[in-house]
């Protein structure tokens, strides 16, 4: 079946399976170790929560409900595709905006696939204030990453790591058309991000979308469920 009912059914199937596999508390050490043991190439990433979420879907959800990696537009690869295309995001309590994907890639995806959906896990984080998690994670990585080397060369401070994540909520959104993107911009719950910003090497960053999750109109929300 096409239309919102089809998207709702698919989101429900995915989220019901997710609920089975999401623990009440996720420790960074165990999440990183699991990703490494199960062959994820992203276990070294500093923002481990989002990569843990992607890995969970790849290893547990897809095997249960089916699907595959979504389409690629430039350097942007969307996370999941069954009948519809979905991307996975993590939103921290208290954060106003949630950064989405490359603006151009989102637009192409909507045009080619009759919309795009977002599966969002929201929760709170405990930060690594004493640096023990960073120290442990760096030791596991061994060699210094190019990102860390460049940061030190610039004299930039190290970003504070998150060491524990407490999942609280699952939200599924569906944006059906380019017209809805324009509506979001006009109404203020969707806007551009990092336009004109540059990387450390001076190259321009690709502009992305960001969304104010708690202000998205109800007609774009498929599911909103507390864990």
What does this structure look like?
It is a single chain. Helix content is about 40%, strand content about 25%. With about 230 residues, the chain is of the alpha+beta class. The chain has one domain (about 5-225). The strands form 3 sheets. Strands 1, 4, 5, 7, 8 and 11 form a 6-stranded mixed beta sheet that branches. Helix 1 packs across helix 3 and helix 2 (about 30-35) packs across helix 3 (about 50-65). The two termini are about 30 Å apart. The mean pLDDT is about 90.
Topology readout:
Elements: H1 4-21, E1 26-27, H2 28-37, H3 48-65, E2 72-73, E3 76-77, E4 80-81, E5 85-92, E6 98-102, H4 103-113, E7 116-127, H5 132-141, H6 146-154, E8 162-175, H7 178-187, E9 190-193, E10 208-211, E11 221-226
Parallel strand pairs: 5-7
Antiparallel strand pairs: 1-8, 2-3, 4-5, 6-10, 7-8, 8-11, 9-10
Q: Which structural category do the helix and sheet elements fall into?
A: alpha+beta
Number of strands: 11
Average residue pLDDT: 90
Strand content: 25-35%
* Uncertain parts: none
User: What letter string, H or E per element, gives the SSE order?
Assistant: HEHHEEEEEHEHHEHEEE
N- to C-terminal distance: 29 Å
Number of helices: 7
Whole-number radius of gyration? 18 Å
The biggest beta sheet, please? Answer: 6 strands, mixed
Q: What is the overall silhouette?
A: globular
How many discrete structural domains? 1
Question: Helix proportion of residues, in percent?
Answer: 25-40%
